[in-house]
C-alpha cells in the first residue's frame, strides 16, 4: 500500500482510536452511511493536507465511502498521530504520508507525493498544499475543479492569493461556516489548547495570570476556558472592536509590552508573525510559559529567544516532554511548549471528536457540492453554501435529541413583509 508512516505495527492501535472517535461523530457517520449507497464522489481524485488525527481519519473514510480516491499528508510537522497514519495505510487503504516530527524537507516531499494523485479537488488546512501546487505545478492547478480550506490562517493566505490574481481555482472557506468557527474555533480550540498546556506543564491555572494574544473566535475560547479554571485573564488585541468585546467580557486589555511583565502563561492565537518578540521576552517573569494556538510556528519569535539565551551558555533544553527551557543571561527562564507549534496537537490530541464532527461534516458536504457543480465556480474564495451549514447544524441537533421551534406561516409572512407596522 502506498504511503509513509513511522511504524506499521501501530496500525491496530490506531484503528481502535479511530473507531472510538467515530463513535463521537454521529453526523459524519450518517453521511458515510448514506454515501456508501449513493457514491456521490465516484472516481473523484482528492489530495488532502490535514492534521493526521483520529477525526481526520474518519473524514477520509467518509470520502472513500463516497467513491473518492484520496491521498493524505500532514498539514503540520508535529500534528501527526503516528498510529493513525499507520491505520489509514494498513487498515483502511488510504495512502497517507505523515510522520510526527518530520523535518521540513520530508514534510514538503509528502505534500508533493499527495499531489501526484493529479487531484480534481484539494483539501487543505493552512494552504501549504495549495501554495505548493500553484508555485511548483501550475499546470496541475489549472486542472483542479475546486478545493476546501479548514482554518483561519489558510483562508487569509488564500484571500491574499486571490487578491494578487494568483489563485487559479475556487476554494470553499470551510473555516468561515457558522458550524465551524462558532464551535470548532471557540469550543474546540479553547479546550484543546488548554489541554495541551496542561499535559505538557501540569500548571495550576487557578490564580495564574494567562495572557491571550488575539481575541478572535479561538482567543475567545481560550480566554473562556482559562477564566473558568480560575485564571486572571489579560487579552492583547490590535482590533478596537475585539478589544472592546474582551473588556466587556470581563478581561483586562493592554498592549503586549505591558502584558509581558504580568503573565505566567502566554497563549497566542492571531495567525500573525512575531506577536511575542524580543522586547517582550526581556520583560517576562522567571518561569514564564509560552504556547501557540495558531496554525504556524511564527507567532513566537523563537530565533530572537535563542539569540537572547545564547550568551548564557545554556542552550535550550527539554525540561519535560514537549517543553523547552531557554535561560537568559540574568538567570530568568522562559519555557516554550511544543516548539512554538500548534499546542493542541503538538502536546495533546487536538479538538474533541464531538466538535470536529461539525467541521468535517462541512468538509465532506462541501467536497460533494464542488464535485456536483456542472459549471465551475470562478477562481477565488467562496463561502460554504448556507443550506450545507444549516443542514449540518440541524443534523447535529437531531443526534443530540434536541428539538427546536418552527415559525408559523403567519410569522414567516410577517418577517418578509414591509407593510405591517405599529
How many E strands?
16
Per DSSP, the total helix count is 18
Please identify the structural class as seen in this structure: alpha/beta
Q: Separation of termini?
A: 70 Å
The gyration radius over C-alpha positions equals 22 Å
CATH third-tier fold name of the largest domain: Rossmann fold
- On the 0-100 scale, what is the average pLDDT? 96
Specify the helix fraction band.
40-55%
Query: Low-confidence stretches at least 5 residues in length (pLDDT < 50)?
Result: none
Strand order of the largest sheet: 1-4-3-2-5-6-7-16
CATH superfamily of the largest domain: Adenosylhomocysteinase-like
Strand content: 15-25%
- What's the domain count? 2
Shape: globular
The CATH class of the largest domain is identified as Alpha Beta
Largest sheet: 8 strands, parallel
Multimerization state: single chain
Q: What CATH architecture label of the largest domain applies?
A: 3-Layer(aba) Sandwich
Pathway: Amino-acid biosynthesis; L-homocysteine biosynthesis; L-homocysteine from S-adenosyl-L-homocysteine: step 1/1
Family: Belongs to the adenosylhomocysteinase family.
Main location: cytoplasm
Function: May play a key role in the regulation of the intracellular concentration of adenosylhomocysteine.
Amino acid at each position: 500500500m502506498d504511503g509513509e508512516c513511522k511504524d506499521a505495527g501501530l496500525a491496530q492501535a490506531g484503528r481502535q482510536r479511530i473507531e472510538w472517535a467515530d463513535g463521537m461523530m454521529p453526523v459524519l457517520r450518517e453521511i458515510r452511511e448514506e454515501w456508501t449507497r449513493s457514491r456521490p464522489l465516484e472516481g473523484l481524485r482528492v489530495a488532502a493536507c490535514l492534521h493526521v488525527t483520529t477525526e481526520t481519519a474518519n473524514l477520509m473514510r467518509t470520502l472513500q465511502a463516497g467513491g473518492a480516491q484520496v491521498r493524505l499528508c500532514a498539514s503540520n510537522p508535529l500534528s501527526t498521530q503516528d498510529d493513525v497514519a499507520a491505520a489509514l495505510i494498513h487498515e483502511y487503504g488510504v495512502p497517507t504520508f505523515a510522520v510526527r516530527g518530520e523535518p521540513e524537507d520530508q514534510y514538503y516531499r509528502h505534500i508533493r507525493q499527495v499531489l501526484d494523485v493529479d487531484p480534481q479537488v484539494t483539501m487543505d488546512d493552512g494552504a501549504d498544499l495549495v501554495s505548493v501546487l500553484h508555485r511548483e505545478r501550475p499546470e496541475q492547478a489549472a486542472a483542479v475543479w475546486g478545493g476546501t480550506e479548514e482554518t483561519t490562517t489558510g483562508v487569509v493566505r488564500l484571500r491574499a492569493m486571490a487578491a494578487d490574481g494568483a489563485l487559479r481555482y475556487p476554494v470553499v472557506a470551510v473555516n468561515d461556516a457558522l458550524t465551524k468557527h462558532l464551535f470548532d474555533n471557540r469550543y474546540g480550540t479553547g479546550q484543546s489548547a488548554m489541554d495541551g498546556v496542561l499535559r505538557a506543564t501540569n500548571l495550576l491555572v487557578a490564580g495564574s495570570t494567562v495572557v491571550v494574544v488575539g481575541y478572535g473566535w479561538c482567543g475567545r475560547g481560550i480566554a473562556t476556558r482559562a477564566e473558568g479554571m480560575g485564571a486572571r485573564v489579560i487579552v492583547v488585541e490590535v482590533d478596537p472592536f475585539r478589544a472592546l468585546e474582551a473588556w466587556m467580557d470581563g478581561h483586562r486589555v493592554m498592549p503586549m509590552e505591558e502584558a509581558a511583565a504580568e503573565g505566567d502563561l502566554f497563549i497566542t492565537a492571531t495567525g500573525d508573525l512575531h506577536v511575542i518578540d524580543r522586547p517582550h521576552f526581556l520583560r517576562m517573569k522567571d518561569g514564564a510559559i509560552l504556547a501557540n494556538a495558531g496554525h504556524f510556528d511564527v507567532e513566537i519569535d523563537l530565533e530572537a529567544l535563542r539569540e537572547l539565551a545564547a550568551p548564557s551558555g545554556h542552550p535550550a533544553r527539554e525540561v519535560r516532554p514537549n517543553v523547552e527551557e531557554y535561560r537568559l543571561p540574568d538567570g530568568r527562564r522562559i519555557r516554550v511548549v511544543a516548539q512554538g507549534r500548534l499546542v493542541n496537537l503538538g502536546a495533546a490530541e487536538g479538538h474533541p471528536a464531538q466538535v470536529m464532527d461539525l467541521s468535517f461534516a462541512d468538509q465532506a458536504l462541501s467536497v460533494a457540492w464542488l464535485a456536483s457543480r456542472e459549471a465551475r465556480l470562478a477562481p477565488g474564495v467562496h463561502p460554504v453554501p448556507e443550506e450545507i451549514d444549516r443542514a449540518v447544524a440541524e443534523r447535529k441537533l437531531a443526534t443530540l435529541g434536541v428539538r427546536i421551534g418552527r415559525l408559523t406561516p403567519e410569522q414567516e409572512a410577517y418577517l418578509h413583509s414591509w407593510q405591517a407596522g405599529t
